Amino acid sequence: MLERYVKKILQARVYDVALETPLSEAKFMSKRLNNKVLIKREDLQPVYSFKIRGAYNKMVQLSQAERDRGVIAASAGNHAQGLAMAAKELGVKATIVMPRITPDIKVQAVKARGAKVILKGDAFGEALEHALQLVEEQGYTYVPPYDDPDVIAGQGTVGMELMHQHPDPIHAIFVPVGGGGLIAGVAAYVKYLRPDIKIIGVEAEDSACLKAALEKGRRVVLEQVGIFAEGVAVAQIGKEPFKICKEYVDQVITVTTDEICAAVKDIFEDTRGVAEPSGALSLAGLKKYVEQQGVQDSTLICINSGANTNFDRLQHIAERTELGEKREAILAVTIPEGPGSFKQFCKVIGRKRMVTEFNYRYADHQQAQIYVGIQVKPDGGDREELIQALREANYPVVDLSDNELAKLHIRHLGGGRSLIPLGEEVYRFEFPERPGALLNFLNHLGHDWNISLFHYRNHGAAYGRVLVGLQVPEGDREQVEAYLNKISYRYWRETENPAYQLFL
Fold first, then answer.
1. 243-287: per-residue pLDDT in tens?
2. Which residues form the ACT-like domain (predicted)?
3. pTM score of the predicted model
4. At what angle do helices 2-10 and 181-193 cross, to 10 degrees?
5. Which of 115, 201, 231, 348 could be cross-linked to 177 through a Cys-Cys bond (beta carbons 3.0 to 4.6 Å apart)?
């Protein structure tokens, strides 16, 4: 089987449209992991994904009669772009059925290459069903995204390039897995030439169809598939890829959404390229493998399979990155209610630790419950040290760093209306962001008025932005603002703002 596939890979027609992408050393990641980490840059293809290889190789194998009927495919986006480009190059009409979850950047890219787009279903399986229905009704030629020997051979040229780009020893190659076309092609070529190299598949934990199939010894259909890494959101591994994977894939690693987000950041820092979640999957798995196996002084290669992500998704990725790297502790802390208690709490944290978030709403006269994010070192020990220091200072602490409800919802919903009349004035502040800036802000705020509302989130911007409620006795407002005018921070009074009036 391997010899047959190697011949097909060597004969694959991909370079009419595809590039031989570079194999770049990730210097920051290499130093951090004490291994030589190399990234195969398939995000640099003309369609920003490796999928152009398999799509074009399949297209050129079709007969003229098959091309004349027009081609159709189901795809979450990257195969769609590859097929659209291949069809345009060969003068063939193309129809693409895409799940409704597909990022708009992929939909528009397919349309821009002249293909007709049909949005159908909420996952790949539903899109596939509709595409096959159209094959029956309209007579289109179906071009599969992964479950086809010619597609696998096209993707296998990635492995062929790796072998001549890095002839020196390689410990392992990490490959993102959706339907399995890429890992099957890479495994076939690499294992034939250099069977000592480990081929390790990496899957999102909520779409781990290869892992499930290997455990059962047969292909299975997942009941549900997560869509964050939509490029690998496949419920069942392909039949043809599984024939290869069950024999020649050494291991499958699953990773979380937070770990994927952290890998997106890692790739950006080393290459200045923005990977899509499925593109960063392999590096997330590489990092986890090193942590679990303790591998050092070895060459590890990961394949960045694509860069097709919506810009607005980056906000979510950035929010989760620090958690994925375990660089942020999310804590619920009880502190005494009263003037100066915020500042005292910040002193316990210390100036060396950056406060990333601070949410608080006045609840009763005795105690204040705050939601706080604090930057910590990723080794795990720093978070425990911080929690211990707070408890030694008599602050009850609940660690919410692994609590999905807290991270996804509570941080945005914390607050509400106080049941106690507060005599509250609300101000919005802006100050230059730097370590210790929040404590400096609290030092300037004064001690004459109790804080009844506080929200702060560090987004890495040039300015920190804080919303503060102060309990101001009747007639003291002019005194408060006279004081605020003396400090160097810009501020706006928001007491009459309808958003505050309605929700806080």
1. 999 999 999 999 998 899 999 999 999 999 999 999 999 999 999
2. 329-402, 425-496
3. 0.77
4. 100
5. 201
Do 38 and 61 sit in the same domain of this protein?
no
Please provide residue 37's backbone torsions phi and psi, each rounded to the nearest 5 degrees.
Answer: -105, 125
Residues 28 and 156 placed together within one structural domain of the fold: yes
198 given a catalytic annotation? no
Domain ranges, residue 94: 51-142
- Tens digits of per-residue pLDDT, 84-116? 999 999 999 999 998 887 778 888 889 999 999
Q: Above 60 in pLDDT, residue 459?
A: no
The amino acid that residue 220 corresponds to is: V
Tell me the helices (H) and strands (E) count for the chain, helix number first.
21, 18
Give the integer Cα–Cα distance in Å for 242 and 463: 52
Integer angstrom CA distances of residue 42 from 30, 329, 469:
20, 34, 50
CATH of the domain at 343: 3.40.1020.10
- Residues near 250 by beta carbon (within 8 Å), at least 6 away in sequence: 172, 198, 199, 200
What band does 290 get if pLDDT is binned at 50, 70 and 90?
Answer: very high
Sheet with 490-493, edge to edge strand ranges: 397-399, 328-336, 367-375, 355-361, 450-457, 463-471, 424-432, 490-493
Q: Structural domain tally of the chain?
A: 3
State the catalytic residue, choosing from 305, 326, 407, 452.
Answer: 305
Residue whose C-alpha is closest to residue 461's, from 429, 430, 493, 492? 430
Q: Which secondary-structure segment (H or E) carries 437?
A: helix 437-445
The reply to whether 215 and 172 lie within a common domain is: yes
Choosing from 51, 191, 211, 288, the catalytic residue is 51
Q: Which CATH number belongs to the domain containing residue 86 in this structure?
A: 3.40.50.1100
Residues 44, 86, single domain; the answer is no
Same structural domain, 172 and 312? yes
Q: Are residues 299 and 381 in the same domain?
A: no
Task: Examine the domain organization and report whether 363 and 240 are in the same domain.
Answer: no
- Whether 486 is catalytic: no
